[in-house]
Amino acid sequence: MEIQARMRNGVRKVRIAGEMTIYNAAESKQELLWKLDGANQIEIDLSGVSELDSAGLQLLILLKQEAGRQGKTLRLLAHSLAVLDVFTLVRADTLFGDPVVLPSGA
To answer: By C-alpha distance, which of 25, 9, 106, 52 is closest to 76?
Structure first.
């Protein structure tokens, strides 16, 4: 999993690409939690996620909960088809409270 982050107008924008699976969730957990530091608003772009399993889903849930605990806003954006498939399967599409927009051609 590749994680890129930048600050723009006070919002930390994080882009995740590759597989969010059990094979890399543990090693990526701390890096993603650190992305919460220094910003009150965090946007996570999921358009590059090619695979998501239950460990990756748990990581997203943890990030959302931790942001809320810290009084920060975390939004998930640009859900890839892999993310949408899992969210739909486990009915997590409304769990995060973010609008889920189907990518063009879906």
So the answer is: 52
Of 51, 11, 72, 13, the residue nearest 3 (C-alpha): 13
At 14, the amino acid letter reads V
In CATH, what number is assigned to the domain containing residue 25? 3.30.750.24
Domain range enclosing 82: 2-89
pLDDT digits (tens, 9 = 90+) for 43-80: 999 999 999 999 999 999 999 999 999 999 999 998 89
The residue with tokens 């358009």 is 47
Contacts of 104 (CB under 8 A, 6+ apart): none
Q: Are 33 and 60 in contact (CB under 8 A)?
A: no
